[in-house]
User: Fold this.
Amino acid sequence: CIQYLSLVDCDIWEDGCELMARRLRRFLTLKELNLDGQWEEHLDLIVTSLEFNMVLTHLWIPRCATQESEGDSSWKQMEYFLHLNRANRRCLVESNLRPAIWPT
Assistant:
């Protein structure tokens, strides 16, 4: 199982970025992903995938100067889902949780 993946200086172009962004929801063991490439047009797809991916905790993507503005909601949404995953969001939907873990 791959848990850490770094795809830097791999010349991932727009088609590859789109495919990776769409399939990110199905990476069930990947915890950390380090990417470079043309991601500017695919941030919404990444956010959509992160809604379903409950394992990924760290995602490293280069930001353009225009995307670093505080008003960019896609970056904020990605950080939101990654923070939830770091807090073990997956635990909330797993059916095999024992009631003994909850305080009484």
